[in-house]
Amino acid sequence: MSDSTDEVRAYTVRLELVDEPGELLRALHPIADNGGNLLSIFHERGNLTPRGHIPVEVDLEATPERFDEIVDALREAGINVIQAGTQHYSESLTIVVSGHIVDTDLSDTLSRIQQSTDATVTDLSLSAPEGTDDVSSARLRLATEEGETDSTLAALRDIADRKDLRLIEPLTAGDAA
Q1: Residue 42 burial (CB count, 10 A)
Q2: pLDDT for 19-45, tens place per residue?
């Protein structure tokens, strides 16, 4: 009888890749090097994520232990892992930010979110009705690891405070009474 941790299972990993030659191959090396067996690759070169990267979905087989090693190796290689299996990034939240979003460098704001949270921006909508030099607003949808919503919101508050932006937070469990 085999141990359940030795059972090979199918997993899906969603990645964001920079649109440069060799990036897909660079993302596949950690999978192969850690014993993952590729089942399929869906490379959406015609679509871009809010950060301007290419979404890639990889289906693979591995033992649970090897899968964790694959995800760690992808991250160590600097590959942006949006989702890894079903246990990662299983919660989502939507926030609205208003202020001088463009003047305070939207790209920098998104980078700060990526660097200071365990969340990833999955959707972004920007509205600048008076032009980019005036007050604008952005709706951001984020995917975060289960149980990390509070720490993600705390980091978002800090980023908004540092950039003098107004953060409109979602209602979370227990807020509506």
Answers
A1: 11
A2: 889 999 999 999 999 999 998 898 877
36, 103 Cβ separation under 8 angstroms = no
- What's the pTM value of the predicted model, to 2 decimals? 0.52
CB neighbour list of residue 162: distance below 8 Å, 6 or more residues apart: none
Q: What mean pLDDT, rounded, does the chain reach?
A: 83
Q: Phi and psi of 136, rounded to 5°? A: -135, 175
Q: Which residue has the tokens 């290689």?
A: 77
